[in-house]
Amino acid sequence: MTVALPPAPEFGALIPLAPAPQVLEFLALRRSTSAVTLGAPAPTLDELDALLRLATRVPDHGKLAPWRFVLLESDAKAAFAARLEALAQARGDAQAAAKLAKLKVPPLAVVVIASPKPAAIPEWEQLLSAGAVCTTLLYAALAMGYGANWITDWYSYDPEATAVLGLTPGERVAGFVLMGTPREPPLERERPTPASLVSRWEG
Fold it and tell me: CA neighbours within 13 Å on the CB side: how many for 28?
């Protein structure tokens, strides 16, 4: 699709608030797409630039930008998956190797790395901001008409796997956001009932 985002506002510019019923409709029907159904095409370079711009507009206490992105595409993504597969096979872990299918099939993976900064802002809040980046990136890709799925798996937490990805001490994988064109529409899944999760504090 053609990317038609408004220009980025200047620092200090007034940002008017207005109802956005289309956004509410999107959220009411939002559904992630199974990673193994995602094929080409993936977002174009211009579309990916727009998605990353949107993803960085998340709440970020202290304006620290405590996250970064690693893009896995085409041959490089296949090589990364092969390194992980070799790691699993060296351990005799067939189940871990099989779990790489979700990473191998989609044409694009955007890895969101939580990269907390030394600051007065608690690390927990910085990690939550990285999670918000994953959510916004996922929603933006779906709103652009692509299929997308936010996953983590053993290679998000395994020290040898994260070393292959290039993480530095203190960094963590917040998520792999997988993108492509779905070969079939997703099915609605069971959802929680909000009333069962709400309480009111009364002192």
Answer: 6
CATH at 119: 3.40.109.10
Beta-strand ranges (E) seen in 75-129 are 108-114
The answer as to whether 201 is a domain residue is: no
Taking the C-alpha atoms of residue 150 and residue 31, their distance in angstroms, rounded to an integer, is 11
DSSP SS3 for 36: helix
Domain assignment present for 79:
yes
Number of domains in the chain: 1
At residue 4 the predicted structure's pLDDT band, cuts being 50, 70 and 90, is confident
Domain limits for position 175:
33-182
| Residue 196 belongs to some domain of the structure | no
Structure tokens at 22: 């289309």
**Spatial distance between the Cα atoms of 107 and 54, rounded to a whole number of angstroms:** 21
Reply yes or no on whether the pLDDT at 3 is more than 80.
no
The answer to whether residue 68 is domain-embedded is yes
Neighbour count for residue 162 (Cβ, 10 Å): 18
Give the pLDDT of residue 78: 97
Residue 61, sorted as left (phi over 0), alpha (psi -120 to 50) or beta, turns out to be beta
pLDDT at 195: 94
pTM for this one? 0.95
